[in-house]
Amino acid sequence: xxxxxxxxxxxxxxxxxxxxxxxxxxxxxxxxxxxxxxxxxxxxxxxxxxxxxxxxxxxxxxxxxxxxxxxxxxxxxxxxxxxxxxxxxxxxxxxxxxxxxxxxxxxxxxxxxxxxxxxxxxxxxxxxxxxxxxxxxxxxxxxxxxxxxxxxxxxxxxxxxxxxxxxxxxxxxxxxxxxxxxxxxxxxxxxxxxxxxxxxxxxxxxxxxxxxxxxxxxxxxxxxxxxxxxxxxxxxxxxxxxxxxxxxxxxxxxxxxxxxxxxxxxxxxxxxxxxxxxxxxxxxxxxxxxxxxxxxxxxxxxxxxxxxxxxxxxxxxxxxxxxxxxxxxxxxxxxxxxxxxxxxxxxxxxxxxxxxxxxxxxxxxxxxxxxxxxxxxxxxxxxxxxxxxxxxxxxxxxxxxxx
Length: 403
Description:
Number of helices: 16
Strand order of the largest sheet: 3-4-14-9-10-13
Helix content: 40-55%
Strand content: 15-25%
CATH architecture of the largest domain: 3-Layer(aba) Sandwich
Shape: globular
Number of strands: 14
Number of domains: 2
Largest sheet: 6 strands, mixed
């Protein structure tokens, strides 16, 4: 019997085609081998899975619902728009799906501390939440630009007991936060687990985070079919920075005849440094321990990137996202800042839901898709709520008087 896509990807060395792998310094090889061996064992363990299921149900509030956005659909005058409401997940985003699981893995490994990078702060808040739940220390590395931009999430992390480490070099955003955390982890790998915040990094994290996030797609597929009398959506749409929320919902439909759209931030324009559209403009390159598609300078170094959404301003993308795009299984879409802000306000006014700026990219693209495909159904992963973004948005983009 032929294995399903998820069962057969990645290979044993963590490659999705040519993308992935583990390009790490020798001093971290033992630590990542330990994580890989532990995950391989625990992913088949009844006790581990039973505890994780109980956490999801009784602590996280899963399953999150699928919601038919009738007002938005009517406004677009086209396709039927549905939201997978990950903004209703505890802490307000999809990130807790893998953070609780990574912290549980750390517990089974006997680690005393979990540490990670964060951009928009959603992963940092989720990991700090998981650390508090399990009684672990927590250290979060965050660029100074993002600390200023995402103050509400910084405060949440501190209230939850996490140590927030400001990153002051380079562009002071997500890439530099990853650099800083990796450097700090080298001397702490015996007692700490680096809980990577997306489907990026060395093997086994792209696979592991995808598997932990696949609950989003599993739920969404079942819920959507129940709502529509057994029909599948025509399209599934998610924003892509590293790609964890996208792989989470794509996982549920990967073997179905459903179009999968990954939406990248086009930012201010098409020039290098004006966007973070890695899949659109990047080429093969190795960064942060894995091979993928990466925005690069002429010298082959990671390029400066920009996005209005701090969780999307990363110069590369998860290796599975790169692979799926290359083999034609996913379609790459884009949304610029102007379209994203318009979508942010539109859904707030039409549906009473304030979305994260990251999710607003997916919504902006789906609005265009709905107008162009009036007979189709579109399922969006609304991956996070916008509490963290409202101060930044209203200070820089005045609240419109009407829709």
